[in-house]
Amino acid sequence: MAFAATDEPSADASVSVEEPPLPFKARVKRMILNSSAVLAPSFTANKLAHRYLQSDHGYMVDLAHGRQRFDVSTIGQDMAVLHSSGATAAEDAPRILVVPGHDGHYRQFVRLMRTLEKKGAWVDMVALPGHLYPEKTICSMRDMTEAVKRAVQENGPYDAIVAHCVTANATLFALRDGLECPKIVLISTPLDLPGLVRFGGQQYGLSGRCLDRFVDRVSELGAPYALDTPWKPIAKERSEDLLVVHARADYAAPVEHIYEIDGLWQGAEIAVFDHGGHNTILNVKSAVNRIADFLIPANPPSQ
To answer: Among the four residues 102, 187, 223, 227, which has the most C-beta atoms within 10 Å?
Structure first.
């Protein structure tokens, strides 16, 4: 079932602005990159693919200096599950797992987590590989998919999973691989993964052969979860309750792709909001409330 959700204006609504010209040093770096892309396209593509899959975050450092408090459970090398400290939900309350997108920060989800906790849920969050510490390690589609599966295996079962951006795709792969969870929320989902990665390469200034090799290399680093893996066959086989949340002005994941889910995933609900963007949708109050009401309805259906 698809519907558009009209929400109130938000201070974080996406606004198109003209980008300022690059500083001198940035222009020099871009010139060097352009030369490298022409002279050594494979080498350049490989280097930038690794950089693209690295995060700038170090959760453990940020948590030590921030106001948000979590208990940390490691679930393997360089990944963990964060549990809200001081949570007071009932023992039999719904358990929800939040999965930030690649290079996403836990602060993006504080509003959603607090809303869910006020409705009586336990809420955990995945810290993806490469996001716990400042050291640069890659986080590929394989790493993200394995993190979702391991988080559920070692800390589940969960009543719902909420995933943002490319971890929504990773969650689809995990479900295909046998992951079980009755409710799924996918936020800002880029169903055209090769297109998203190509866009990222273009932001580096790549084009032509080097850009093609960049996309191929990012896909190879995530094997066996190739970027161009068809998602529609996965959707057709699913029976979980699904809510898809998207901003109409999402620059990274065109909203028109989202409507293709309707009719494939049985019973899927699609909520498109006029305010917010790819990341800022998580600050739109009506979008957060829509997610919370889907996960924890005020009057749950009788069994």
So the answer is: 187
- Report d(CA 93, CA 121) in Å as an integer: 5
The residue written with tokens 């690649």 in the block is 102
Question: In angstroms, rounded to a whole number, what is the distance separating the alpha carbons of residues 276 and 278?
Answer: 7
Which three-class secondary structure state does DSSP give residue 288? helix
Taking alpha carbons only, the member of 192, 153, 168 closest to residue 104 is 168
Q: What is the pLDDT of residue 61?
A: 83
| Residue 4 CB-density burial (10 A; 0-12 exposed, 13-18 middle, 19+ buried) | exposed
Q: What is the pLDDT of residues 17-55, one digit of tens each?
A: 345 565 756 555 665 566 566 557 788 999 999 999 999
Query: What are the pLDDT digits (tens) for 103-130?
Result: 988 889 989 999 999 999 999 999 999 9
For residue 183, what are the contacts with CB-CB under 8 A and spacing of at least 6?
159, 160, 161, 240, 241, 242, 243, 294, 295
Q: How far is CA 110 from the centre of its chain?
A: 15
Q: Are 37 and 47 in contact (CB under 8 A)?
A: no
Residues listed for the chain: 303
Which tokens go with 101?
Answer: 């997108």
Q: Which residues pair with 71 in a beta bridge?
A: 83
| Phi and psi torsions of 181, nearest 5° | -165, 130
- Asked if residues 70 and 82 have their Cβ atoms less than 8 Å apart, the reply is yes
The residue type found at 287 is A
CA dihedral 46, 136, 128, 280 (to 10 degrees): -80
Omega of the bond leading into 41 within 30 degrees of 0 (cis): no
Residues paired with residue 186 on neighbouring β-strands, in sequence order: 163, 244
Q: How far apart are CA 79 and CA 131, in angstroms?
A: 8
Whether the ω angle into residue 157 lies within 30 degrees of 0, i.e. cis, is yes
CB 185 within 8 A of CB 217: no
What gap in Å lies between CA 107 and CA 82, rounded to an integer? 12
Strands 95-99 and 160-164, how do they pair?
Answer: parallel
Average predicted confidence (pLDDT) for the chain: 86
